[in-house]
Amino acid sequence: MFAADSGMMLHAPSRRRTVVEHADGGVDGVLATSIGNGEDLGPAVRHSFESGKPEALLHQLRNIVRKKEVEIEELCKLHYEDFIVAVDELRGVLVDADELKSMLSSENLRLQEVASALLLRLEELLELYLIKKNVTEALQTLKTLDMIERNYIQNTPLKPLRKVIEKQIPALKLHIEKKVCSEFNDWLVHIRSAAKEIGQLAIGQASSARQKEEEKRARRREAEEQSRTGVGDVACALDIEQIDEDSMLEFDLTPVYRAHHIHTCLGIEEKFRDYYYKNRLMQLNLDLQISSAQPFLESHQPFFAQIAGFFIVEDRVRRTAGGLLSDSQVEAIWETATAKMTSVLEDQFSRTDTASHLLLIKDFVTLLGATLTRHGYRVAPLLEVLDSSRDKYHELLLSECWKQISDILASDSFEQMVIKKEFEYNMNVLSFQLQSSDIMPAFPYIAPFSSSVPDVCRIVRSFIEDSVNYLSYGGHINFYEVVKKYLDKLVIGVLNEALLNMIHTGNLGVSQAMQIAANIAVLEGSCDLFLWQAAQLCSVPLRLVERPHAGLTAKAVLKASQNAAYNALVNVIDSKLDEYLALMNGINWTADEAPENANDYIHEVVVYLDFLISTAQQILPAEALYKIGVGALSHISHSIVAAFLTESLKRFTLNAVIGIGNDLKTLEAFADERFQSTGLRELKKDRSFRDCLVEARQLVNLLVSNQPENFMNPVIREKNYGALDYKKVASICEKFKDAPDRLFGSLSSRNTKQDARKKSMDMLKRRLKDFS
C-alpha cells in the first residue's frame, strides 16, 4: 500500500510529497493513504464501531485533517509570494501602459499642433509664391508695355502696326488699372469689416498692459506697507516685457501696396492717392455714425473699436506704403474723427444718469486713448471730455451713496452690534481697523458701534475705489487731491447730513441717541483710514498723508456733529426727566407736618437716572458718560428751583421745603455712588455729580436756615449760596410762608425760634426788594 501510495503522489509538488511521506507512519499513514486514493472507508468505520473504539478513528481523522491543513498552508505560502509578485508586475505593466498611452496621446497632439502650424505656414508660403509669380509677371508685363511705348513704337516700320499698338496700349493700361482697382476695392470692403476685430484686439492688449501695471502698483503698495510696518521682506523685481504690436495685429496690406505700385508705374500715382484718401474718409464717416437702435452703453465698445481699427490700419499704411498717405492727411482724418467722438461723448454723457454707466464708458475711452497713443495719435481732446464730466460722475455717485446710506441708517436699530463668528469680526471690524485691541476677542463679541458703521465704511471704501477708477488714466497725473476733495464731499455732504437728519428728525430714544453719538465717534476715527485707502489707491506715499494738517476736513465736521448728537441726547433726556419732574405738581406745598421720607416722584427720577447711567456706561466713552450725568443732574437741579418759581405755585411752607430737602438727599446719595462706581472719579474733574445739584441744595439750605438774611452778607453768600441768583431768590422768598395762615393765627403763641427765622426772612425779603 505504501508503494502504491508513493506512486500515486508523483504528480504532486515536491514539498507536498515530503509532507505525505513523513505522515505515512503507522495507522494514520494507512488511513491517510486510503483517503488520498479515494478508497471506500465504510469497512474501516464499521469495524471501529463494532470493536467499540470509534474515538480512535475520530482521533486519527482529526490528525489527518491537521496534517492536510499544514500541507495546504505550506502550499499557499509557497505560491502566495509568487502571486503577489505577479500582481505587482501586472500592475506595473498597466501603469507603464497608461503612461505610454498618455505620452503617445500627448506626442500626437503636439505633432498635430506643430504640423497644423507648419501646414498653415506652407499654405501661406505657397500663396506668397503665387503672389510673387503674379507680381513678377505683372512687372514684366508693365516693363514690356513701357519698353514698347518708349523705345519700339517709334521704330516700328509698319505704320498700320504702329497705329494698332498705339491704340491698344491705353486699353491695356486701362484694363490693368481696372483689375488692380477691383482687387483694391475688395480690400476696402474686407478691411472695413475687419477693422472692429483689429481694434478690439489692440484695445485688449492695452487692457492687459493696464492690468499688469495695476498688479505692479499693488505689489509696490504692499512692499511700501511692509516697509512702513517693518513686517516681511521687501523684494524688488524688474519686469520688462517687449511686445511687437505689429506682429500681434496681423492684417494684409498687399492689395494696397500692389495697387499703389502699379498706379505709380502707370504714371497715375496721384490719382490713386486721391482715390484711396476719399474712399477711406468715406468709410470713416460711415463708421462715425451712431446707431439709434441700440443704447450707447451697449454700442460704445464696437463703435470705438471700429474707429481704433481704422486708425491702426491708417498708421500702418502711412509707415509702410511709401508715401501713399502724408502726415497731414492722417492728421486731418484724425481731427475729423476726434471732433465727432468728442461730440458723441459730450452728448451721451449729458444723457447718462447712472454713475456706473459713465465709468464703463470712461474706462473704454481711456483704453482707446492708450491704444491710439501708441500709434502716435493725440488723444488729449478725448481725455478733456472725460475730465469735464468728472463732476457729473461724482454727483451721480454721491446721489447713489446718499440713498444707500439713508437706507442703512433707516434700517439700523442703533443697538450695539453682536458678532458671533470670527469671519464676521474680520469682515466688520478688522477690515476697517475698528478694533480696540489686537487680541482676538471671545465670541459673541459686543461691538461699541451698531451695524450701520461697517456698512457705511463699505460704502465709503467703494466710493473711493469708484472715484479713483474714474480719475485714473485720464488727463491728471496726480489726482490724489481730487479724490480727497470728493471724499470730503461724501463724508460732509452725504454721511454727515444723513446723520444730522437722523438726529434731528429720527424721533430717537435715549439709547438710540447714545448709539448714534458713539457711531459718529467711531466714524470720525475712521476718516484717517479712508484717507489712507485713497492715498494707497492713488499710489501716494503714506508719509505725505501723515503730515500735519493733511487730514480730511470732514473729521472736524463729524466732531461737531458728535456734539450735536450729544445735544440731541441731552434734549431727549431732559424731555424724559420733565415727564417725571412734572409729578412734583402732586406735592403738598402747604403741608402741616414735615415729611420723613422723599416724595414719590423722586423715586421715578432715580430709577430713570439709574437706567440712563447704566446704558451710557455700556455705549459711551467715559467723557461722554460724564457729560450725560452732569447734564441730567443739572437739569433736575434747575427744574427743582424752577418749581418754586412757577406761577401756579402761590405759596409754600417750611414743611414742603423739608420734603424737597429729603428728595435732594436721595439724589445726592445716588450721585455719589454712581460717580464712584462708574470710575468717573478717576477723570479728576473739578465738578462731581453731587456738585450738579448745588443750586437746588443751596436754595433748600437757605429756606431752612435760621438766619436767611445772611444771604445778603457777601462773604457768606459766596461761601454758601454762590449758585443762587438774586432775582430768583427774591421771587421764591415772596412765596415762602413760615407757617400756614389760620384763623386767629396772629393770636396763637409762636415758638421763639420760628419768630426769629420769620424776622430774618422778612428782613431778607425787604433787603432783596431794596436791592432790586
TrEMBL record:
Gene Ontology biological-process entries: acceptance of pollen; Golgi to plasma membrane transport; intracellular protein transport; pollen germination; pollen tube growth; vesicle tethering involved in exocytosis
Annotated Gene3D superfamilies: Dsl1p vesicle tethering complex, Tip20p subunit, domain D, Exocyst complex subunit Sec15 C-terminal domain, N-terminal subdomain
Ranges of compositional bias, category Basic and acidic residues: 210-227
Coiled coil (UniProt feature): none
Pfam family, one: Sec15_C
Domain Exocyst complex subunit EXOC6/Sec15 C-terminal positions: 381-735
Region (Disordered): 209-228
Residue ranges of every copy of the Exocyst complex component EXOC6/Sec15 N-terminal domain listed in the record: 60-143
Record's GO cellular component terms: cytosol; exocyst; membrane
Domain of life: Eukaryota
Keyword Zinc annotated: no
Key words, A-Z: Coiled coil, Cytoplasm, Exocytosis, Transport
Protein location: Cytoplasm, Cytosol
Function: Component of the exocyst complex involved in the docking of exocytic vesicles with fusion sites on the plasma membrane during regulated or polarized secretion. Involved in polarized cell growth and organ morphogenesis. During cytokinesis, involved in cell plate initiation, cell plate maturation and formation of new primary cell wall.
UniProt record similarity statement: Belongs to the SEC15 family.
Protein name according to UniProt: Exocyst complex component
Species this protein is from: Musa troglodytarum
